[in-house]
Amino acid sequence: VGGKVGLEEVYLGAGLGFLLLALVAWGFLGQMEKRTR
Question: What is the pLDDT of residues 13-23, one digit of tens each?
Fold first, then answer.
């Protein structure tokens, strides 16, 4: 086991991070839309 990270792990981590960010942004936009009405 070396300190090298596999490409799959990198893509998985980036994908999960992007998904989480998109989810948070979507929820935030939904809250803003509710407040303006």
Answer: 999 999 999 99
